[in-house]
Amino acid sequence: MPGGVNSPVRAMRSIGREHPIFAARGEGAELVDVDGNRYIDWVCSWGPLILGHAHPRVVAAVREAAERGTSYGTPTGGEVELAAEVVERFRSVDMMRMVNSGTEASMSAVRLARAATGRDMIVKFAGAYHGHVDGLLAESGSGLATQGIPASPGVTRAQAADTMVVRWNDRESVDAAVDEHAPAAILAEPVPANMGVVPPDDGFLEFLRERADTAGAMLILDEVISGFRVARGGAQEIYGVDADLTIMGKVLGGGLPAAAYGGRRELMDRVAPAGDTYQAGTLSGNPLAVAAGLATLRELEEPAYERLDALTDRLSAGLRDAAGERPVQVASVRGLVTPFFSAAPVKDFDGASATDPEAYGRFCRALLDRGIYPPASRFEAWFVSLAHDEAAIDRTVAAAAEAFDAAFA
Ligand SMILES: *Cc1c(COP(=O)(O)O)cnc(C)c1O
Question: How far is CA 200 from each of CA 16, 124, 206, 313, 347, rounded to the nearest angstrom?
Fold first, then answer.
């Protein structure tokens, strides 16, 4: 396997560890590796495991589904139930189409936005990640940022030319791109979490909504991380901004491969076979993934979000205290935390890129040595789950106090 992994963020070379963790099993908030080491897991499969590992209701739902058959290639009641759960949570989503990964969902939403507007150009933000869609790889966050890959070879000039990269939280750069290019869509993570967590400034999402409207462009919000996490109805619920198209994944599949894109009825009716815009998938709406997703969403009712809030606050306040006077900024939104090794608050990808990789690496290695598993990238969020508890957080914070010493030694 290239780099020993099936997805780049799993590698640990960027924090100075030769080998990634090889997982043997997960239990709630803990990951056990093949050597029997136990870690408090702040990665949680990079977002899907909002209930932690091997949640009994999710495991039971998957087992029961598997006993009935693993794939049919024809619709099931579960897909209708899952779509109904999503439509009820997201005000802007009347209809949705399931796919197998966030990458596929982004690719399909962009295709639909182009079909609906008759335009080609996509405006995206530096440091945002929308999966490894060719045209969306420029200045991406996540694994590309971690590996220092600004734009991937293998992307054609035509695909790159149809993407305009602008700066997060910078209205002027959005205005300039939209005025110059008349894009098909403005594409954003409403709570960016692939350059670390960098919430929108006050009014920024409302501004994107207005700019898309005045330009006749679609607003596509990629809620693959934020959906069902920062709130029941995602970032759109918190900020009161409706997308034309919403991209979902991660929590939606409850730890199995599932993702979706959705939006207003007249837009989604353009998708084949209702309409002319083609998109398909042999395993889309897979019954095991749908069962895991449904079981997960059904746990995500109050007081779950209140609890997630309290856990997130405890972790972020604890890390802030542990860092003390050192140049560390702890950013957080419900369910997501990033300790940036920076003297100044981080507002965009330039700020995230200016954080100290060496100090973050020393910090991570010290945490791993103490049985705490943080994301091995300064561009990723720590994912809080409902399986984490006060004791896990307090152990993490105690280890972090020593790890900050190691980071700044
Ligand atoms: C993870 C992620 C994706 C890609 O999802 P995959 O299932 O890994 O293809 C897209 N957008 C965002 C915001 C993500 O965090």
Answer: 32, 14, 10, 19, 8
Domain ranges (residues) in the chain: 2-55+302-407, 57-297
For residue 249, the CA-to-ligand 1 centroid distance in Å is: 7
Residues 6+ positions from 82 with CB-CB distance below 8 Å: 98, 252, 290, 293, 294, 297
The kind and range of the H/E element at 291 are helix 287-299
β-partners of residue 29 are none
pTM of the model: 0.97
Per-residue pLDDT at 148 exceeds 70: no
Residue in 122, 140, 194, 198 to alter for ligand 1 test, most ligand atoms within 8 A of Cβ: 194
Counting from 1 in the atom list of ligand 1, the atom nearest the Cα of 104 is 9
Rounded Cα gap, residues 110 and 267, in angstroms: 12
Distance 278 CA to ligand 1 centre (A): 21
Do residues 98 and 105 lie in contact, with contact meaning Cβ atoms separated by under 8 Å?
no
Mean pLDDT of 71-83: 98
Intrachain domains 2-55+302-407 and 57-297 with the same fold: no
135 lines ligand 1 (CB under 6 A): no
* pLDDT tens-digit readout, 318-340: 999 999 999 999 999 999 999 99
CATH number of 2-55+302-407: 3.90.1150.10
CATH 1.20.1250.20 fits 57-297, yes or no: no
Cα–Cα dist 55/304, whole Å: 14
Kindly give, in sequence order, each residue whose CB lies less than 8 Å from that of residue 381, ignoring residues fewer than 6 positions away: 47, 193, 196, 197, 225, 336, 337, 338, 375
pLDDT at 312 (0 to 100): 98
Indicate the top mutation candidate among 43, 230, 250, 336 to test ligand 1's pocket, ranked by most ligand atoms within 8 A of CB. 250
| Active-site annotation, residues | 129, 222, 250
Going from the Cα of 375 to the center of ligand 1, the distance in angstroms, rounded, reads 15
* CA 334 to ligand 1 centroid distance, Å: 18
The verdict on the CB of residue 143 being under 6 Å from ligand 1 is no
Residue 341 is classified by DSSP as -
